[in-house]
Structure formats: C-alpha cells, structure tokens
Write a structure and sequence with these properties.
Jelly Rolls, five-stranded antiparallel β-sheet
Length: 279
C-alpha cells in the first residue's frame, strides 16, 4: 500500500541544448512561472487538526519507545494523519467491517489522497479488540494494541520502518469494541544528483496511477553539496519555474519534474517535501 515517486536520469548535451532552447522559448512566450512566495510560508494558511486523544497519545509513546529500543529515530506525530486514522477506525465500527480495503474498494493510499494528504510512501496498521473498557485502562490496552502489532511480521515492519517519518493514531471504542488505525508516511524526498558537465539531472515527482490532488503545497530546499554553482528548475504544466531561493514554499501542479545542472562536475542535493500542514 505505497505510492513510490522518483525516476531520475541524466540528459546528454544535445538534450541540454534542447532544454535550454525550450527554456528560452518559454521565456519569450511568457511561460516562465514563479512559485508563490519563494521566501517563506507566511502567505499559506496553517491547517489546524485536532491533537491526539489521551489513549492515542499513549499508543504513540509506546510505539516510539519500541523504536528507540531498536535504535531508530522516533516518529513525529502528524495531527492530520491522526485525524484520517480516526475517521477510518470509526468507519470500520459503523460500517461493520475490518480490513485495509474499505467497502468502496479503496486502499490506504486512495484514502489519504481523498483527504488531500500527499506523501512519497505510506503504510497502515489496524487492530480490532473485544471486551475492552472504553473509558479506562488506556495504558494496559495500549500495550495490547502494540504487542498485537509486534507479533505480526508485517505490522512489526511498519512500526520499525526506517523510511517513514510521520505517524498518526486513530482510536474508536464503543460497546466494548476497540478499533485502532496507525498511519505512517514519508513526506520528504532527498534527491542526490551526481552532476556531470554538459548534462542535466532530472527527477520526476508525482507520476502515479493514483488520482492525486492538484496543486499541493511543496517545500523545496537546496541542500549543501560540493557544487560552487548549481541551477535548479521545476517544469510543471509546460512551464519552467526557476528555483531562485535555497529554501522556498509554493503550490505546484502534479506531476512535475526537477531539473538540476551545473557547469562543473560535482554533487548536488535537493530536498522536496509535501507540506500537508499548509494550504
């Protein structure tokens, strides 16, 4: 249940000349674009989702303790992921089903995208327990939840994943029946480019068979490399968008392509993050 983005290639000199020619023609036709507010994210509205409940937060803490014992970085709690997870736990109760595919045939990737949550990879753990006191015993019940996941190879792999960065926990308990959903995601991608003089390194973002939200908010950082000069451009909707800041936020139509080049042989690094907390 993953979406994987990222296809990279090197363009030869002929392609570089073609790329520069297209850029020049786009410039003449007025198709050079700009990402909204390349200096800060201040013009974007901060999305506000409810924080985890006490029970959800205890499960989150338990998961991170397990990760730390395995020498892994703790997950960051994502309120938006938690909100989506809570909705799914509630749906499983009221629609009387239990599974990673809902009654409409939609998997975790589709459900995240339905909620306009963008990611490079994502996964889901779920669990159902009976004879639960819904109003107390949070600590004991959280142990039952996490222990249940750890005894399953696939669920354990998601708890101890070293690629995912964010987690959200959704709990719904009624009539002594407990449904818990754990969603994890990776919303950032590091693009490491070994640049060669006369070549353009390209990387595709958002090419997938899934239907994705249009114009997500994207954060692009040009990280430190050993290039004294590096040029980064975005190509989206036949528009060339120069990245003229080292740290910028903007709305970009999917799919788009990042093109990196330098007049020297060197290594460059660019980080691309989907900002699901901004709109």
């Amino acid at each position: 249940m993953y979406i994987e983005y990222g296809i990279s290639c090197q363009m030869r000199l002929a392609h570089l000349l073609r790329f520069l020619l297209i850029s020049f023609l786009l410039f003449l036709s007025g198709c050079i674009g700009k990402i909204q507010d390349q200096k800060s994210d201040s013009i974007f509205r901060k999305l506000d989702y409810p924080p985890p409940t006490e029970f959800e937060y205890i499960i989150f803490q338990h998961i991170n303790r397990v990760r730390l014992e395995s020498n892994l970085s703790p997950y960051k709690y994502d309120n938006r992921l938690g909100y989506i997870a809570r909705l799914y736990a509630k749906r499983m109760y009221y629609e009387n089903f239990f599974g990673h595919i809902d009654k409409e045939g939609r998997d975790v990737a589709m459900r995240l995208l339905d909620n306009r949550y963008m990611f490079f990879s994502a996964g889901e753990n779920i669990i159902y327990l009976e004879n639960i006191n819904c109003n107390s015993d949070y600590l004991q019940n959280s142990r039952r939840v996490v222990t249940g996941w750890l005894t399953s190879v696939g669920h354990r792999r998601l708890i101890l994943n070293d690629i995912m960065e964010n987690v959200g926990i959704g709990v719904f308990c009624k009539d002594n029946m407990l449904y818990v959903t754990m969603l994890v995601s990776a919303t950032c991608q590091n693009i490491n480019a070994e640049l060669i003089e006369g070549y353009v390194f390209t990387y595709d973002i958002g090419k997938t068979n899934y239907t994705v939200p249009q114009d997500p908010t994207v954060h692009i950082k040009i990280l430190d490399g050993d290039c004294s000069i590096v040029n980064v451009n975005i190509i989206s909707n036949h528009t060339l968008i120069p990245v003229d800041q080292r740290n910028m936020v903007g709305k970009i139509s999917l799919p788009f392509q990042i093109a990196i080049n330098s007049p020297f042989k060197c290594n460059a690094s660019v980080e691309v993050c989907f900002r699901n907390d901004l709109e």
